[in-house]
Amino acid sequence: MRVIVRSVSELCITVGTLIVLFVVYVLFWTGVKADHTMSDQIHQLQNQWSRQTARPKAAPTPTAPAKPAAYKDGKPFAIMYIPRLGFTWNKPVLEDTSVDTLKKGLGHYAGTARLGQVGNFAVAGHRRTYGNPFVDFPELRRGDAVVLTDGTTWFTYRIDKGPYKTVPTDIEVIDPVPRKSGYTASGRYLTLTTCDPEWGHSHRLIVWAHLDSTQPVEAGKPAALRR
Amino acid sequence: MYGWIWRHLPGNAWVKALISLVLALAVVYILFQYVFPWAEPLLPFNDVTVDNQ
Q: What does each C-alpha distance from A33 to A82, B25, B49 come to in angstroms?
């Protein structure tokens, strides 16, 4: 009898400890890891870009600019800045939206438009865990800037509509011209998606934006990022 | 269970305590490195896209 009571209590203590550790892992450790990986990705991008800008000066090509390289799955290709989410808020944008990719930054829906191109550049990010990139997503308002850079150009998008709440199966929100967004003609759009409620998965929050302006990186940061 | 482990550890109480600590840290490491990363995607916080369901 005593052995049974002891074993059961030991089991309860073990399970309790496991749960506490798991909560610590989800709430705290994924954030530590994600912050580390994301700043790694950003450094990687910045290194890559500084090498790229050094190269064309050495060998100027008179031909038409080469077709931009395709985005590689799971690799970063841009940095996103959203002043509304914090002046220091910046996250790498990686290609595809697999679970592993979203641990390292924001994920670009494969098959949607490229950054700055005609169509819908759609990006997903975590609301909670993994550094909570989109924790303040509901704060986004019409007119807010979403700034991206791919190393050669700054793209400033302006939010037109959102946050719009929908269900996870509503895949038309990332269509080239999303029906619910109010856009009627094709254009250069951006869609951000995250989960709602914060800790749940029953709904999604969406914002839509249009490309407002672009400028080469040599021209300095766009107005939206200057204080 | 814990009593059984304690009885089977070698050395005096101090050595046993030290080995227990190392064992506990090893278990936490394995959990954080392998078990939790596997278990975490099973929770709903990863569903942030609109097309994976």
A: 22, 19, 21
| Active-site residue list of A | 126, 195, 204
User: Could you tell me if B40 lies within 8 Å of chain A, comparing CB atoms?
Assistant: yes
B1 touches A at CB < 8 Å: yes
Q: Do B36 and A129 touch (CB under 8 A)?
A: no
Q: Does A34 touch chain B (CB under 8 A)?
A: no
Residues of A in contact with B23 (CB under 8 A): none
pLDDT of residue A162: 76
Instruction: Rounding to the nearest 10 degrees, give the CA dihedral for residues A211, A213, A217, A223.
Output: -110
* Distance (Å) from the alpha carbon of A102 to chain B's nearest alpha carbon: 8
Q: For residues A178 and A190, give the distance between their C-alpha atoms in angstroms, rounded to a whole number.
A: 10
Q: What is the pLDDT of residue B52?
A: 55
Q: Are B50 and A18 in contact (CB < 8 Å)? A: no
Q: Which residue has the higher pLDDT, B50 or A160?
A: A160
Q: What pLDDT was estimated at residue B32?
A: 93
Percentage helix, strand, coil for chain B under 3-state DSSP, each rounded to 5: 75, 0, 25
Q: Do B47 and A168 touch (CB under 8 A)?
A: yes
For residue A124, the chain B residues in CB contact (below 8 A) are 48-50
Residue ranges of domains in chain A, CATH in brackets: 41-58+74-225 (2.40.260.10)
